[in-house]
Amino acid sequence: MPPEPPRTLPGYEHIKRYWDYHIHAHIAKILPGESYVTRHDEIITTVVGSCVSACIRDVVNNIGGMNHFMLPAQQLNSSEWEATHVSAAMRYGNYAMEHVVNEILKYGGKRQYLEVKLFGGGQIMKNMANIGQQNIEFVRNYVRLEGLKLVAEDLGDIYPRKIMFYPLTGLVRIKKLRAMEQAILEREKMYQSNLQKQPVGGDVDLF
């Protein structure tokens, strides 16, 4: 029998978690549009194609998390990003990033101790706008303008990536999937379609 999983922080009870018998660890699997933050010795995993995942951790207080997001199809540039008016796409990206940061701070993390690792943004959807590159430009600008410490990235190219993040140590294991898995492509197309049909509404706090 596998050991009991550690208790999740409030709000993450819906995230699928399982015991991996090969590496003897509990794993939380997040899907597009989801995030997960933990103070426990468990692994967070996802598979990104055009999407981006940010792995963020407090290196002192042992808490970290990961998100998985895609901007709605929209051309982004630095002048738009730095303008007073914040577009729906940017508000969405802001929310995805700020949610993980704010959750870490809420449960004892300190902003000055945060480090960030970025992954994904592959151009996997042929004959479509390069959503991956837009995601890359957004998240790099975000990290720079927010003054966060970027310590590693593996972005771009044409491959989907399987990411395994160990929040307590900061270790990230990456597997590039050489053969396109149709399930990944279909999942991201559906996710993108949902974003376009349901634009971000309401206010998102910017920090």
Automatic annotation (TrEMBL):
Supply the enzyme class, top level.
hydrolase
Q: Which InterPro entries match?
A: CheD-like_sf, Chemorcpt_Glu_NH3ase_CheD, Cytotoxic_necrot_fac-like_cat
Record keywords: Chemotaxis, Hydrolase
What Enzyme Commission number(s) appear in the record? 3.5.1.44
GO terms classed as biological process: chemotaxis
Catalysed reaction per UniProt?
A: L-glutaminyl-[protein] + H2O = L-glutamyl-[protein] + NH4(+)
What GO molecular function annotations does the UniProt record carry, in alphabetical order? Answer: protein-glutamine glutaminase activity
Query: Source organism's superkingdom?
Result: Bacteria
Q: What does this protein do?
A: Probably deamidates glutamine residues to glutamate on methyl-accepting chemotaxis receptors (MCPs), playing an important role in chemotaxis.
NCBIfam families referenced in this protein's UniProt entry, alphabetically: PRK13487.1
The record's family statement is:
Belongs to the CheD family.
Q: Output this protein's name.
A: Probable chemoreceptor glutamine deamidase CheD
| Organism, as annotated | Beggiatoa alba B18LD
Tell me the name of the encoding gene: cheD
